[in-house]
Amino acid sequence: MKTKGICYLVGAGPGDPGLLTLRGRECLEQADVVLYDYLVSPGILRWASPSARVRYVGKTAGRHTLPQEDVNALLVKETRAGHRVVRLKGGDPFVFGRGGEEALALAAAKLPFEIVPGISSAIAGPAYAGIPVTHRGMSAAFTVFTGHEDPSKDEPVLDYAHIAQTHGTKVILMGVERAGAIAAALVSEGMPGGTPVALIRWATTGRQQTLCATLDTVADRVREAGFQSPAVTVIGEVVTLRDSLQWFEHRPLLGQRIVVTRARKQSGGLSDALIGLGADVIELPTIRIDPAPEPMEFGRLVRDSHTYAWIVFTSVNGVDAFFEYFYKIYDDAREIGGVRIAAIGPATARRVRDFHLKVDVQPEDFVAEALVKALKKEGGIENETFLIVRPAEARDTLPQELSAAGAIVDVAVAYRTMPETEDPTGARARLETEGADWIAFTSASTVRNFLALNLARPPAMKVASIGPVTSATLREAGWTADVEASKHDIPGLVAAILRKAAVNP
Predict the structure, then answer these.
(1) Cα separation, 40 vs 45, whole angstroms
(2) Domains defined along the chain, listed by start
(3) Residue 87: helix, strand or coil by DSSP?
(4) How far is 100 from 113, CA to CA, in rounded Å?
(5) Cα gap 306→338, rounded to integer Å
(6) N or C: which terminus of the chain carries fewer CB neighbours within 10 A?
């Protein structure tokens, strides 16, 4: 039977991926089709299913990918075809987001839809700048209005006399280009020219900038600073609280643009850590994770894993692939028998423990050579049987050294890394047009595949490497790592970037 379609009009929030609601993420994970806007953070798209069709339909001033009528028609077409459609909109769908028009088009077509509210930049932008839109004894109300009215209207709908006389905070969305004109209109209607004003650009992201002025000076300040959209404007006495309450703009990596090259499904941990420190992250995956190239052989080795003395996991992806097959074959974890487990790296070890299994050996250094040394300390490995779960492209150091020490080794190729060919978020174009302060490489394959893209390297961009193997690959290509993680994992890589950024802000 044909599945009945439904469209979810989802508010993606103001920019910080962490501000997407749980319901919004749930809809995104289950979507067949995703249509997203200009102000939607690309980081949010990592939660879309790999099988989903993702399409940009955003609009900027003077540049519309699709007219609104065509977007409405596309929503109707995809929903009517039986798909689960997510219309991902910046902020909240019903706060100057034209979500009402899209919902009406679906309703007219008698198609089911759901509204998933999002956090509006009208409150999030001021909050991230340290400005509460209401505050006891200062502002008991706030008014939100657009600075960009429908150009097809003969006369403006906004009543500036009424707005000026309304008590409380004023918040303007999409009004940077008309900030001076709006300020002049409010002053002409009775607001004091000395009323504090703040404009917050790219609010809640690593690109956030805040400009403070008054109604009398805002036009000159915007022009002098070259301040551009997208920005939220806040007018009122609450702006004076920013000196005491600003918190986000003190983060150590604010304004640092960092390229993350990990596979899309893995990028979240590194991206989230950098975003949490204030960085502006460009997720530009250079690799993707494909299934085992020989699934029958891999499945046979997983089935027989209980016959080995040791299982060695070299990556989180290997752990996931192994247990995906394991629980297709067995329904009881005890079927793994008395095998001992070794893991390279704390993330790999944590993933093993997620399956309620103990990790018997985890070397301090997260490389194959260190694991061999640690295994030898366990009392000798001669004639012991080892099953190494690894990617197809892994170095042969581990099986060779174990075999040289007398071990009996089988290799289970759990997956392979392939060059990423898709760029649904336009990350490559953004790197080439905006540049970056850092690029972070988490493996030799991310280095090789990034270089294969033949993208121009921004001259000031520094390079961060997760470890010696990755750094060696960089040197082979004529690049030098500005920093190398002392602990060869994601926290170590973040710490290395943070130390260098603190020295050279």
Answers:
(1) 9
(2) 6-119 (3.40.1010.10), 123-249 (3.30.950.10), 257-286+420-503 (3.40.50.10090), 290-419 (3.40.50.10090)
(3) strand
(4) 12
(5) 7
(6) N
How far apart are alpha carbons 7 and 82 in whole angstroms? Answer: 10
- Give per-residue pLDDT as tens, 389-415: 999 988 888 899 899 889 999 999 999
pLDDT confidence of residue 64: 60
Could you confirm whether 37 is annotated as catalytic?
Answer: yes
DSSP at 88: E
For residues 271-275, average pLDDT: 91
In one-letter notation, the amino acid at residue 215 is L
Distance CA 79, CA 385 (A): 54
The pLDDT of residue 1 is 37
- Please say if the pLDDT value at position 41 is more than 70: yes
Degrees, nearest 5: CA angle 490-486-381: 90
Residue 192 is given by DSSP the state -
Angle made by CA atoms 195, 196, 197, in degrees to the nearest 5 = 120
Q: Of 32, 37, 437, 489, which residue is the catalytic one?
A: 37
Where residue 63 falls among pLDDT bands split at 50, 70, 90? Answer: low
* Out of 61-70, 251-260, 397-406, least confident range: 61-70
DSSP conformation letters of 371-436: HHHHHHTTT--TT-EEEEEEETT--SHHHHHHHHTT-EEEEEEEEEEEE----TT-HHHHHHHH--
Backbone angles phi, psi at 352, to 5 degrees: -60, -45
Q: What is the mean pLDDT of the chain?
A: 91
> Which residues are CB-neighbours of 261 under 8 A, at least 6 positions away?
284, 285, 286, 287, 439, 440, 441, 442, 446, 449, 450
End-to-end CA distance of the chain: 59
Whether the pLDDT of residue 217 is over 80: the answer is yes
Catalytic residue among 16, 89, 170, 174: 174
Record the tokens describing residue 430, joined without a space.
Answer: 């953004």
Please report which residue ranges of 18-80 form alpha helices under DSSP H: 22-29, 68-80
- Indicate if 296 belongs to the active site: no
- Number of H helices and E strands in the chain, helices first, is 18, 22
Residue 382, both tokens: 């001669």
Q: Which residues contact 498 (CB under 8 A, 6 or more apart)?
A: 252, 253, 277
174: annotated active-site residue: yes
* Nearest CA among 402, 410, 498, 397 for reference residue 444: 397
Q: How do residues 339-398 score in pLDDT, each as one tens digit? A: 999 998 888 999 999 999 999 998 877 677 788 888 888 777 889 999 999 999 888 888
Scan for tokens 């790296």, then name that residue: 345
64 versus 120: which is more confidently predicted?
120
Question: Is residue 177 classed as helix, strand or coil in its secondary structure?
Answer: coil
Region of residue 356 (left: phi > 0; alpha: psi -120 to 50; beta: else): left
